[in-house]
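Q&A log
Question type: sequence-to-structure
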Amino acid sequence: MSVVNGLMKLPEEFRQRIEDLQAGRTQPPPVRHAATVVVLRDHPEQGLQAFMLRRVASMAFAPGAYVFPGGSVDPRDGEASIGWVGPSPRQWGEAFGADETVARELVCAAVRETFEETQVLLAGPTAETVVDDTRGDDWEADRKALVDRSQSLAEFLNRRGLLLRADLLRPWGHWITPVVETRRYDTRFFVAAIPAGQRARDVSTEADKVAWVRPAEAVQRALRGEWALLPPTLATLSELAEYDTVADVLAAERTISVREPRAEIIDGEPYLVLPEDAAKYYPKG
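Response status: OK
Response body:
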């Protein structure tokens, strides 16, 4: 769906839902906390690249869209027994406007979901080291056990003698799904460099294609109608396109503010109205 002047035309079936919400005849669905991680690398010829997955057409949420790895918080993501390196949950909470418990869950979800969907693991045996290779049947068995929730992230890391490397992540953004959607997420966006020796792989059953792409190229593909990108994804890529290297991204000073598009009936048609600081990345007029 195209966006012009910060307005995204919604399918006709959204009209009644918008009217019902505005009249108080229905209530928005509950919001689930979620984490998304933009995994980055420096390509020797193309420069800064981000790893993206295309969601399979059968997915209930954002089918066919290119997204970053991520997903909802699992109830066990906040287990305190996990070994932790880097900024404390309290510090993450200050960055994201969350309490300490939610912040711990978000960071753990970020690490877990990234491993589940790409086999990139932001963890290591010491505070100064990172796992350098996660290929092999034993790693795949652990990944699947996380996916089916037969083991928690803490159980996985503790059994392998690994520490969660929260210091490898940086806070980047915060988006909340508009109330008109039937599935809603309160999502914090992180950025991280892929650890040396590791490879991002196509392992997620939720994706049918993966790609390393320059942020500016992904934005242009979306604006030409070649790729489907949700507004939070396009805005994040547009922001990252302003940087030349992974080091530049990780060193960026970020003040995180909440962005939540709103749905309105304009001239009798249903529209999604994007926040001004995200709408600027789309065509005008």
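Response note: The chain has a mean pLDDT of 93.
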